[in-house]
Amino acid sequence: PPIFIDGSEEVNAYTRGMFSPIIVLKKGLVDIMNDGELKFVIGHELGHIRLFHFTIRTLFDSSITRVPLILYLPLLVFKVLFLNGKMSRSFEHSADRAGLHACGNLEDAVSCMIKLKTGQKEIDRSKVDQAISGNLDIDDQGNFFSDLLSTHPDFEDRVREMVRYSNSKKMY
Question: Are the C-beta atoms of 57 and 109 separated by less than 8 Å?
Fold first, then answer.
């Protein structure tokens, strides 16, 4: 799919479009990532496309408006708690695996995650090693409700899952 650079200084990327998807990278993200980390981000977004995450979300979002009023509130609660929460977090883990395959390097994937979390261009390589070993504590400031409603897994869960996945596949 085409890749566009948005001029925003925000450190973010996303995928849009169901039939002709595009990937959008924010300038702030491109500016702080090295080549391997950018491969992880682009692979992550390609994973969303390949796994039809945007299509699934779009279909569910459009179908919720076509239900009887009595069912609307329960479906809305289901959408907020399941689709925007648990299922969306599952999508992120799957896309992280695709990004890991694309960049081919666990350290690049983890350093990318640290940069996404902190917004810093330069990170100490020992932080990557600490994160991989499960000893890096980056304050997520989450609580029960924000964690429940979050569309993305917290940093430590994402890194732990990438390490587990790479070890199970003997990837690197």
Answer: no
